[in-house]
Amino acid sequence: MLMPACTITACGYSIHTKQYSSRRLLPHYLLRFQAEGISRIHLNGIEQEYIPGDLMVAAPGDSYILETGLAIGQKPIRCADYYMACTVESPLEWLEGDFKRKLRLGLDEPFLNLFKNLVYEWRRLRDQDTETQDYLARLLLLSIRRSLYPESPSPPVSRAAARMKSYMEAHSGQPLTLTQIAAHGGLGISRASELFKEAYGCSVMDYAILMRLNNAREHILYDNITLEEAAFACGFTSYTHFSRMFRKRYGLSPSEYRQQSREPL
Hints:
The chain is α+β, with helices and mostly antiparallel strands. It is built from 9 helices and 11 strands. It has helices at 110-125, 130-148, 159-170, 178-184, 189-200, 204-222, 227-233, 239-250, 254-261, and strands at 6-16, 20-25, 29-36, 39-43, 46-50, 54-58, 63-68, 71-72, 75-76, 79-88, 102-104. A 5-stranded antiparallel beta sheet has the order 1-10-3-6-11, covered by helices on one side. Strands 2-7-4-5 form a 4-stranded antiparallel beta sheet, with no helix packed on it. The relative contact order is 0.12. The mean pLDDT is 83.
């Protein structure tokens, strides 16, 4: 079945450093991918908490309330998300009625890179290349359909490994230790490392560093702070170590990456 053509009405990367709330009845499809921090969303009267790696999928007519900047004590938590609102030529039958509106995708999924490319194209060209935006939006929706209705069952992931992964994503701005992460999964260090590697194909600490680098990348792209501040805000205690890991991941130093992203297109 072909995916109908999409028209994007809004798309971007949003950062909230203070408490923020929004309430509306949606006239369009809305995707919201939690990239950092924690938010609370009420959809059609059902309240759920979203942590990094969670995707909200809403359809026209849904009642939508968003609350960000949830506080721990007296300090609000920085919150960031990717979002897209769109209309389609014909209704999406698989996004009608009582479908699953919250999906757990994680931050290391291809879906996130697809979303980032769409935001980039929207900001870069806006109305000049609607065909590319249309195809990217369709790919996003197809990815969601596959997540909602997988053709074959995915291999089971241990609950302990899933708990550790969720814990790292929710606390990706903190300098976590393997002992802390393993304890959250209710395991010893050796068993935690073994289960996580088996479930996700990388070590616990490699994944923790990846989460911090992803957050630092967003700071570098969208925040007006120094590179050192970006590193420390994401849990790195040494800028030299951060710079080395960043280059290994993205092929550029943090300063080169910022300069390249801000060059005129």
